[in-house]
Amino acid sequence: MIIIKLGGSALTVKDASTPTLDEENLDRIASEVSYYNDDMIIVHGAGSYGHIYADEYKIGDVITNANEHLRRIEGVCKTQTSVQQLNHDICQKLQQKGIPAITIKPSSFIVTNQKRIAVCDTTIIKQYLENGFVPVLYGDAVLDMDEDIKFAIISGDQIITYLAYDLKADRVILASDVDGIYTDNPKTNPEAKLIDEVTQDTQLNTTSNENMADVTGGMNGKIQELLKLAENNIQSQIINAQTPGNIQKAVSGQNVKGTIIK
Amino acid sequence: MIIIKLGGSALTVKDASTPTLDEENLDRIASEVSYYNDDMIIVHGAGSYGHIYADEYKIGDVITNANEHLRRIEGVCKTQTSVQQLNHDICQKLQQKGIPAITIKPSSFIVTNQKRIAVCDTTIIKQYLENGFVPVLYGDAVLDMDEDIKFAIISGDQIITYLAYDLKADRVILASDVDGIYTDNPKTNPEAKLIDEVTQDTQLNTTSNENMADVTGGMNGKIQELLKLAENNIQSQIINAQTPGNIQKAVSGQNVKGTIIK
């Protein structure tokens, strides 16, 4: 079984002031994913559908009074409903490409504790897989056990790490808007080089990699999650979803420009 | 805690050839529901968003070969995605009216056995209620444990009955497109009278009531579910959502034309 993460930045217009789909990218990416015909889970980011509300309503910040609590509830509602719309559009497109995509709504069964997944029964995901479906999950606003914050945003990255362990994934593909992990920030340092392979021992300039972050977790958070997977012998691969053909090659097991974490 | 069922027939254009929202009705109904300010769960039907695909793909019928299985999988995907869109639009409208509506996707945690709910952990629904949210569920296409059918449609009616027991609801309001239960079919028999109160002992002409059915379960199925609730001292009330003011009165505890089942 493979897990593919589709970055919110590749599917949505990231800096849009209202949630906006990148329809052209979505259509192409869904086509490329459809080249894989075996057990697969897809996890997508929230992109502009999530961050706009998550930021506006400060979901995950400490709640200090009843008014803030009410406002946070409103924010959780809006975030969930917004990412549900994005997820709908993605699943519909995947289905049009022949993928039996089925939504597993994270906030309907995941609860975090201090922003880390604490409750997540994957039984039904296994059942959908056994029945030939492709479960689709996504970054979402969830309940948190910590009474101080009560709510949290879980990133698609955290979900893939959890599922990869729990369901013993063979490999993980992260298709985002960067080519992979660089020795330094390629946008500011023309000498920066793409690192083909990262292991526990690789020295990384995490500060500069932070600049290539997507909004939830950032690149450094992503690397830490993937190194934990590597410790459990689950190999992952960061590729650029913006480059046509990359996802198709990666799911087909062909060489792709990117970074392998093992 | 009260549970309100909003019939798919009141929220969607029932006989439409493609899923179509009844926006005017939805707007009014959401306003009326917002008069209730205490613990509440909302369950809505699938209306034209569900039945079109459920019927076309014969979800719930016995699967006799691999091709039928593949086709059923496609149908489950399409049904789930379609009702997810309806649910999105309903939740967004409820939120606009100030209701902290949060979707609990039935197919993400409910599994049936021979079309009856067999797995349904309501822990997270309780947590959302305790946190001040209004959980919203709906008729959906789910996995079924029966190897012969593999998939089933669960009606909103089956969900409300299950939740009403499990979460010890105080009362249940079913707002649909009929005034209540009649002595005979009011569309064909001008002498038919609305029954104010139905109990286990009431003699019902179930055949004629069948004509007033909504598509999942039908009126007779509905009455049987509600009589089971009544046995457990949970009172329910059938009212017509098409009549402006009915839902507002019902949630406010005022007298409404309709049938009480107790």
Automatic annotation (TrEMBL), chains A, B:
Catalyzes the formation of isopentenyl diphosphate (IPP), the building block of all isoprenoids. One of its GO terms (biological process) is terpenoid biosynthetic process. PANTHER family: GLUTAMATE 5-KINASE (PTHR43654), ISOPENTENYL PHOSPHATE KINASE (PTHR43654:SF1). This is Isopentenyl phosphate kinase. One of its GO terms (cellular component) is cytosol. The keyword ATP-binding applies. Substrate binds at residues 51, 156. Pfam families: AA_kinase. Residues 1-240 form the Aspartate/glutamate/uridylate kinase domain. Keywords: ATP-binding, Isoprene biosynthesis, Kinase, Nucleotide-binding, Transferase. Homodimer. GO terms for molecular function: ATP binding; isopentenyl phosphate kinase activity; kinase activity. Its EC number is 2.7.4.26. The record marks 14 as: Transition state stabilizer. ATP binds at residues 5-9, 46-47, 177, 182-187, 218, 222. Belongs to the isopentenyl phosphate kinase family.
